[in-house]
Amino acid sequence: MSGELVPGRGELRASHEDRDQVVEWLRVAAGDGRLSAEELDERLEVALTARTYGELEALITDLPAAGPALATGVAAAPPKETSRIEVGSGSTKRDGPWAVPRRMEIECRSGSVVLDFTSAVITSPTLEIEASVRSGSVTLVVPPDVFVDVDDVAVNSGSVQNRTHVAPGTPVRLRVHVTGKVRAGTIRVRPPRPPRRGFWQWLLRRPRPTKALTR
């Protein structure tokens, strides 16, 4: 109808997927040192309750493009050649649809680093990871089509554990080669954990109570 006001893009309603993409973008930015822990918490709170594209865009206007493109029309850059994660204490995590670079440098002095490749956006067949673990842990969560080689990691104190394998005949989507040193702490490679049963699933799978025998 003539005379109707057409809302701008910033006024359009955002979806759950839009909010999830911005949350992942913010987590990557925090892991790269672009946001402090306090800034991350503040922006995550807004992102999870945002109603429009405009509210989401306001959270990332000062961040370089990274990760998958948003449905809001914000252009995304291709994955970076090299990504660096440095953890002095606390923890950082890459999960969801994060963009996997071709090379990662990880320095873990304390705390933990988790790289979950289950839903990652993979554009290169190989990933080189150089890890320096002085304390704490670095964990790689990999699906069945991701192969991880940790044989070239030097262990001074601590451990390197790889609990995954690629079954014969499985097409390999990504090959990860891990190098570096473990002075104390652990590098772990494990498969994704099975989803937990919800309360109703648990309740429905319980055996029915047997009636007491009447004499």
Could you list some keywords that capture this structure?
215 residues; alpha/beta; 2 domains; 5-stranded parallel β-sheet; disordered N terminus
Tell me, what's the shape?
globular
- Secondary-structure-based class equals alpha/beta
What level of helicity do the residues show? 10-25%
The total beta strand count reads 10
> What's the main sheet like?
5 strands, parallel
| Count of discrete structural domains | 2
**Any low-confidence stretches, pLDDT <50, length ≥5?**
1-6, 71-77, 211-215
Count of runs of 4 or more consecutive helical residues? 4
N- to C-terminal separation? 78 Å
Give the percentage of residues in beta strands.
25-35%
Assembly context of the chains: single chain
The ordered H/E elements are HHHEEEEEEEEEEH
Mean pLDDT: 81
Radius of gyration: 22 Å
Instruction: Going across the biggest sheet, name each strand in turn.
Output: 1-3-5-9-7
